[in-house]
Amino acid sequence: MSDYWWLIIGMTASTFLPRYLPLAFAGKVRIPLLLKQALELVPIAVLTAIIVQMSLVRDGSITIGVENHYLVASIVAFAVALWRKHLMLTIVVGLAVFTLCRLLLA
Amino acid sequence: MSDKRFDAALFWQGARDILPLIIAAIPFGIVYGAMGQSLGLSNWQVMGMSLFLYAGSAQFIAVTLLAAAAAYPVVLLTVFIVNLRHMLYSASLMPVAEKVPGLLRVPMGFWLTDESFAIAANRLRQNHNDGAGFYAYYMGAAITMYLNWQLCTWIGITAGRQIPDMTQWGLDIAIVVAFIGMVVPLLERASHWTCAVTSAVCISLTYDWPHQSGLLFSSLVAIAVGVLVMHRQRNEGVEEVTE
User: Fold this and answer.
1) Fewest Cβ atoms nearer than 10 Å: which of B49, B78, B135, B156?
2) What phi and psi values does residue B157 have, to the nearest 5 degrees?
C-alpha cells in the first residue's frame, strides 16, 4: 500500500488549500461590505449545522425522542448555555446528562 | 498597535482558552485512533493522517471509506468537500490576516480547525483584532489543539487494541455540547438567531446528501438568510450593521 502516502499527500493538499488560500489573499483583495457581513455569520451557520446533524441524526435518520441521548443532552446543554454563557459548565452538564441517559434509559 | 513581535502571555492565554474545547476533543481523537487501527490500517497510516491532514471529521470519513475499499479519487474528493467549510473560516479571518506577514499565514491556515476557529471568532468578537496580538493568541490555541490531537490519536491506536468496541461508546457527544457552548454566546441579534434556526432546519432536510454536502449547503443558505435579516433590520433602524 505504498500508494497510500500519495493519497495522504493529496488529502493534505485538499485540506490545506481551502484553509490557506483566503488567508494568502488577505490584504490583496478588498472585501466588499456584503461579504464582510456574510463572514460574520460563518461560525454560527457552520457550527449550528454540525451540532444539529450530530445530535439529530442517529444511524442515518432523524431520531426525535428520549431514546436519542444525544438530542436530550444537546437540549439541556443549550438551556445551560443560554442561562450561563459558560463553556466548561455547558460541557460538564451536557456530558452528565448524556451519561445519566445511558445509565437510566438504556 | 503593539510593536512586540510575539507576545508570550497572549500565546499562553490562547492555549488556556481553548482547554475546554480540547477536553471535548480528547474522546474524538481517541475514537479516531481506535477506529483507524480496527479498520486494518497500519499505525503510521492512522497517525499520518493526524499529522498531515489534521482535520477531525475528514479523517473519520477517510478511514471509513478506505476500510470500505473506496477508490482513492473518491476518498480525495470527499475529503475536499468535507473540508470546504474551512474556506469559510479562512475567509472570515481575512480582515485580521491582513496584518500578519505572508509566510506566517501558512501555519495559521494549516492549524485552522472548527475548534481553533471558534476560539479565534470569539476573540475577534471582543474586538481584540490587532494583528500581532491576535496571532500569538491564535497560535497558542491552535498549537495546543494540534499537539493534543496527535497525543489522542496515539492513545486511541494503542488503547483501541485493548478495548475493541470503544467506537460504540458515543464519546462524540463531548464535541456536540462543546460546540453548543461556543455558539450560544455568539447569538446576540435577530440576524444571528435567524441564521442559526435556518441552518438547523436546512441540515435536517439535507443531512443525507452525499459527501456531507448538505453541511456546506445549509451553511450558505443560513448565511444568506442572516444577511437578509441584517439588512431588513438596518432599514428599520433596529440593528446596527458593522461597517
Assistant:
1) B78
2) -60, -45
Q: Average of pLDDT values for A52-56? A: 93
Residue of B nearest to A95 (CA): B174
A54 CB neighbours in chain B (<8 A) are: 172, 175-176
Instruction: List A29's β-bridge partners, or say none.
Output: A26
For residues A42-50, average pLDDT = 91
Measure the CA–CA gap between A97 and A71, rounded to whole angstroms.
Answer: 10
Can you tell me the distance from the alpha carbon of A10 to that of B71, in angstroms, rounded to the nearest whole number?
Answer: 13
**Going by C-beta distance under 8 Å and a sequence separation of 6 or more, which residues neighbour residue A45?**
B88, B195, B196, B198, B199, B218, B219, B220, B222, B223, B226
Q: Kindly provide the ipTM of the predicted complex, given to two decimals.
A: 0.90
The pLDDT of residue A65 is 92
Q: What is the pTM of this model?
A: 0.82
Residue A57, SS3 per DSSP = strand
Kindly determine whether residue B121 and residue A43, on different chains, have CB atoms separated by under 8 Å.
Answer: yes
Residue of A nearest to B119 (CA): A43
**Residues B124, A40: contact at Cβ < 8 Å?**
no
Helix, strand, or coil (residue A8): helix
Query: If we measure between CA atoms, which residue out of B219, B110, B182, B100 comes closest to residue A53?
Result: B219
Paired residues of A61 in beta bridges: A58
Helix (H, G, I), strand (E, B) or coil at B10: helix
Place of cell 477517510: B62
Amino acid letter for position B199: S
- Rounded to 5°, the CA angle B138-B142-B146 comes to 170
Residue B240 has pLDDT above 70, yes or no: no
Q: Where are the domains of chain B?
A: 8-186, 187-243
Reduce the DSSP state of residue B124 to 3 states and report it: helix
Q: pLDDT for A61-92, tens place per residue?
A: 999 999 999 999 999 999 999 999 888 899 99
